[in-house]
Amino acid sequence: MKAVFFTAHGGNEVLTLGERPDPVPGAGEVLVRVEAAALNRLDLFVRDGIPGVPVAFPHVPGADGAGVIEALGPGVKDPAVGTRVVLQPGLSCGTCEFCLTGERSLCVSYRILGEHLPGTFAEKIAIPRANVFPAPHRLSPEKAAAFPLAGLTAWRMLVTRAALRPGETVLIHGVGGGVSTFAVQIAKLCGASRVFVTSSSEEKRARAKELGADEAIDYTTTDVGKAIRELTGKRGVDVVVDSVGAATWRHSLTAAAKKGRIVTCGATSGPGPAENINVIFWKQLSILGSTMGTDAEFAAMLAAVEAGRLEPVVDTVLPLGDVRKAYERMASGAGFGKIVLKVA
Ligand SMILES: [Zn+2]
C-alpha cells in the first residue's frame, strides 16, 4: 500500500511517501481502506519525537481517518465489508481499573493511532473493531476525517470535565485549530450564553463569530484577562478552555469567575506557567485536565455531527503526496479548522 512514513525523527524532510506492506487485521480487528485523514498538532510532536514515547520505525503517522471496511479479522462479525466508518483514535486495554468503568482515555496503557501505533496517513489500516463507528451519512470522507480527535477532545473538555450548563459563559483561547473550532460550537450547543474567543487574526476572529462566538478579542492589542473582567462586569467567565498554556495561563486565572473551571488539554506555548495559587484558592477555582475521551462521549459527539448540530470545519484538503505542505500549514498556525489529506 501507499503510505506516508518516516524512519527517523526530524523536520518535514523525514516525511516520505512510499510503499509499505498491507496491514493484516488480527483477531478482533478490522481492515479499513482509508479515504481521507486529517492532521493534528500531535502529528508535529510525533514527527519531532516525544520524549518517553518511542516509535517503531518506519512509522506511519496520523490519528484521524475515515474510510470503508475492507475486511474483517478473525472473530469479527460486523460491520459489513463496504460500510463507511470513522475511526476513534484512542486504543485502550479493556481490563484496567479505568477501562472497566468505561474511562477509555484514562487507560493505564492508553495508545493513540499514529503516535504509539501505525496511523491513518496510509491507504489501509488495521484497527480494533471497537474503534470503528459509522460515518455520518451527510458528510464527505474529507469532512468525516476532520472531526474524531478534535471533536472528541473538545466534547470531553466542555461536556464532561467542565460540565458546562445553559446560561454559563466561556472563554476559549486561540481560536483557529481543530479543538477550538469544535469548542465554540459545543459551548453554544450546551447553551452557553456568551462565548468569548481570542485570536491575533482578524479573519479568524470573524470566522469564529460565524461559528457562534459572541465576542472575539485580539490578544496582541488587548490584555485578555482584564478585557474579560470588563466585558462581564468584573464577574469573569464560568469556564475557560486553555490549551495554550504558558502564554495564556495568567489570563485564564484572571478571566475565571469565582468558582470558575479552567479546563486544559494541552500547552502549545509551553507547560510551565506561574501558578498563582493564591488566585486559585481565593476564587475557589477548579483546574481540570482532559485527554481524548470515552466511547460514550465519542458516540454522543458523533450523533451531534450526524444531526448537523456540529460541523467539522475544514481549512484545506491536500492529496496524500502533499503531506509536507500539510505539515507546513499545521506548523504555521495560519489555518482555520482542519487540514485534511485525501488518501483515495
Ligand atoms: Zn485500560
How many strands in all? 17
For the record, the CATH architecture of the largest domain stands as Alpha-Beta Complex
What proportion of the residues form beta strands (DSSP E)? 15-25%
Small-molecule binders here are: zinc ion
Structural class: alpha/beta
CATH-defined topology of the largest domain: Quinone Oxidoreductase, Chain A, domain 1
Protein model, in words:
It is globular and about 60 Å long. The protein folds into two domains: 2-146 and 312-342, Alpha-Beta Complex (Quinone Oxidoreductase, Chain A, domain 1); 151-289, Medium-chain alcohol dehydrogenases, catalytic domain (Quinone Oxidoreductase, Chain A, domain 1). The longest helix has 14 residues, at 148-161. The strands form four sheets. Strands 3, 4, 5, 8, 9, 16 and 17 form a seven-stranded mixed beta sheet that branches. It has a six-stranded parallel beta sheet with strand order 12-11-10-13-14-15, sandwiched between helices. The protein is built from ten helices and 17 strands. It has 344 residues and is α/β, with parallel strands linked by helices. Bound molecules: zinc ion. Zinc ion is lined by residues 92-93, 96, 98-99, 107-109.
Q: Which key terms come to mind for this protein?
A:
single chain, 344 residues, alpha/beta, Quinone Oxidoreductase, Chain A, domain 1, 2 domains, 7-stranded mixed β-sheet, binds zinc ion
What's this model, at a glance?
The chain has 344 residues and is an alpha/beta fold. It is built from ten helices and 17 strands.
What is the element layout, followed by pairings?
Blueprint: E1 2-5, E2 16-19, E3 29-38, H1 41-48, E4 64-72, E5 84-87, E6 90-91, E7 111-112, E8 124-128, E9 132-134, H2 141-144, H3 148-161, E10 169-172, H4 178-189, E11 194-198, H5 202-211, E12 215-217, H6 224-231, E13 237-241, H7 249-255, E14 256-264, H8 277-282, E15 286-289, H9 295-306, E16 314-319, H10 323-332, E17 338-342
Parallel strand pairs: 10-11, 10-13, 11-12, 13-14, 14-15, 16-17
Antiparallel strand pairs: 1-2, 3-4, 3-8, 3-17, 4-5, 5-9, 6-7
Helix pairs in contact: 3-4, 3-9, 6-7
The site of zinc ion has 8 residues, from loops.
